[in-house]
Every structure is written in structure tokens, then in C-alpha cells.
Automatic annotation (TrEMBL):
This protein's UniProt keywords: Signal
Gene3D superfamilies tied to this protein: Periplasmic binding protein-like II
Phylogenetic placement of the source organism: Bacteria, Pseudomonadati, Pseudomonadota, Alphaproteobacteria, Hyphomicrobiales
Family annotation (PANTHER family): PHOSPHONATES-BINDING PERIPLASMIC PROTEIN
GO biological process, any: organic phosphonate transport
The keyword Glycoprotein appears for this protein: no
Any one GO cellular component localisation term in the record: ATP-binding cassette (ABC) transporter complex
Record flagged with keyword Signal: yes
Source taxon at top rank: Bacteria
Name of the featured protein: Phosphonate ABC transporter substrate-binding protein
Entry's family note: Belongs to the phosphate/phosphite/phosphonate binding protein family.
InterPro entries given in the database record: PhnD, Phosphnate-bd
Signal sequence, start to end: 1-21
Length: 302
């Protein structure tokens, strides 16, 4: 009897594994973070839609551009997405809710070899604001509640810089609906200043080598002569490329190899999905994001 039960369990397990593999081979689902014009996001990832079916042996690749960060996060937690590129805070939110939902496999390397970036606070140059202290009593805009550079790191590190809590120092705060929208709202005067992400490599006047400012400059919707930088955070770990943990190992391996080779094989695609200039990818594990896990825990407990 025991032998029959055992054999039945083995057979059921084999069927489940086979079903998972079949699902993987049918469709590959890509989650794209919100905050940037949807048409631009879809265009940037089209190169992956074109190439991945042959690479992975799937029938199609589907893009799911979420309205905000949490849309992708919930898709990953629910197992309805196979791959996404998250900020460190977004990954921390997934990990703290279910450490087995996704697997971080790669992160980007900046042109100077670093694996980090910065939160920068920017204001209109004609605002009369020149430094962080000038923001006392002013309205500060954050990008998204699940953004590392657009909210988590500023909210955790700004109090030390200004010697007071965010609520005490700034007149008010709000969210701009993603990084691109936030900067546009700063330009419109909705916020006196806002926090967004940048590589911190290269010149501010160019929008740095990569990041939201650089993407906006490259799209022709931002002139850096109109902005001034008021503050820059400590270095933040670059966000991870994550895949669904339950994806079969063969597909994970093929996808990881495709991504690792992309900077040399298809630099245009690499630049499009990353938003600027990077050297390439490097392997990463959850341990790389422990400081961000701690930062999110501190906010949850505050």
C-alpha cells in the first residue's frame, strides 16, 4: 500500500513539474514598472518580445506595463509574471512578503564599475532653491511608495541630513506617480523639489550617464539647464533582474545567458531597457540587498 502511495506521489509530482515546464514553454510574461509613458515602455522592451521566443522556445512573449510599482510586485507575488527589473525597495517588498516568490539573478554595473546608484533631489533652477536647507517648509515630491530612490532611501536618510523628521522639516510631501511624472510635476510647480534616480556617474548637466533624468533628456522632454540638484543620497544597490522562482531551470539558464550576452550582442536593446549607459550585468543574490531589507523593515515598523 505504502509503495502504491509513494509511486502515486512521485507520478503526481512529475505531472506538476511537467505542467510547470509546459507553462514556461508556452508564454513568457514580462512585468514593466510604472511611472514612465506607457508607449515608451512598450517600445523599449519590444526587442525582447522579438528575440525571446526563439531563445526560450516559447510561443510568445507578453508585456505587462503596470500603472505603478505595486502592479508588478503583486504580479510577481501572484506568480503571473516571469521576469521583471525591480528597484531594490520593490524587490525587498516582494522578499519580505515571500522570499521564495522570485529569484534575483543579475544587477547592472555602472560605467565606472560600481553596482549602485543614487537618489537625487532636483528643483527648478529658477526657483531660488540652491541647497537642501532651502527646502525647509517647502513641498517635496516622492516618485512612488515602492521606489527605492524615489521614496525609501530619501525617507530614511533625509532626517539625518536635515536634523529633523521629514514631516517636521518639509512643509508637505506627496507622490508624483513615478519618476518621469514626478520630474514633470516639479517642472510644473506642483512640488518645489522631487526625488528621482540617477547613476551619479558623469555630469549632472547631461542627466548623468543613466537614470530617469538621462532617459528624459534622451527623449527630449527635459533640459537639464532648467534643473538644479539640491541633495544626493548615499550609494544605493542597483535593483535586480528577477525571475519567477518556480520557473524550470532550463528556461532560467537560457534567459540568464541571454541577458548576460545582451550588452555585447545587442547594445541598443540593453540601453533601451536599462535607460542609459551601463557596462553590463553581474550576478547577484538576496544578500546584496540586506541593507534595503533593513530599511523597509524600519519603515514598516515606524
Amino acid at each position: 500500500m505504502f509503495k502504491k502511495v509513494l509511486m502515486g506521489a512521485v507520478a503526481l509530482t512529475a505531472m506538476m513539474v511537467g505542467a510547470a515546464a509546459a507553462e514556461d514553454l508556452k508564454e513568457f510574461r514580462i512585468g514593466i514598472l510604472g511611472g514612465e509613458n506607457e508607449a515608451d515602455r512598450l517600445r523599449n522592451f519590444q526587442c525582447m518580445v522579438d528575440q525571446l521566443p526563439e531563445v526560450l522556445g516559447v510561443e510568445k512573449v507578453s508585456l505587462f506595463p503596470a500603472a505603478d510599482y505595486d502592479g508588478v510586485i503583486q504580479g510577481l507575488l501572484g506568480g503571473t509574471l516571469d521576469y521583471a527589473e525591480l528597484g531594490a525597495s520593490g524587490y525587498a517588498k516582494v522578499y519580505l512578503e515571500n522570499p521564495n516568490a522570485v529569484e534575483p539573478i543579475l544587477t547592472t554595473v555602472q560605467t565606472d564599475g560600481s553596482t549602485g546608484y543614487y537618489s537625487v533631489m532636483v528643483a527648478r533652477k529658477d526657483s531660488g532653491l540652491a541647497k537642501l536647507e532651502d527646502m525647509k517648509g517647502k513641498k517635496l515630491g516622492f516618485a512612488d511608495p515602492d521606489s527605492t530612490s524615489g521614496f525609501l532611501i530619501p525617507s530614511v536618510t533625509l532626517p539625518k541630513s536635515v536634523g529633523a523628521s521629514v514631516e517636521e522639516f518639509f512643509g508637505s510631501t506627496g507622490f508624483g506617480g513615478g519618476h518621469e511624472n514626478l520630474v514633470l510635476e516639479v517642472m510644473k510647480g506642483t512640488f518645489d523639489a522631487g526625488t528621482t534616480w540617477a547613476s551619479g556617474v558623469g555630469e549632472f548637466s547631461d542627466g548623468y550617464s543613466s537614470g530617469n533624468l538621462r532617459k528624459m533628456v534622451d527623449k527630449g522632454i527635459l533640459d537639464m539647464d532648467d534643473l538644479v540638484e539640491l541633495w544626493k543620497s548615499p550609494l544605493i544597490p542597483n535593483g535586480p533582474v528577477v525571475v519567477r522562482t518556480s520557473m524550470n531551470a532550463d528556461m532560467k539558464g537560457k534567459f540568464k545567458q541571454f541577458m548576460m550576452e545582451m550588452p555585447e550582442k545587442d547594445p541598443a536593446c540593453f540601453s533601451a531597457i536599462q535607460g542609459g549607459d551601463y557596462k553590463g550585468y553581474v550576478e547577484v543574490t538576496p544578500a546584496f540587498y540586506e541593507p534595503i531589507f533593513d530599511a523597509r523593515r524600519s519603515k514598516i515598523g515606524s
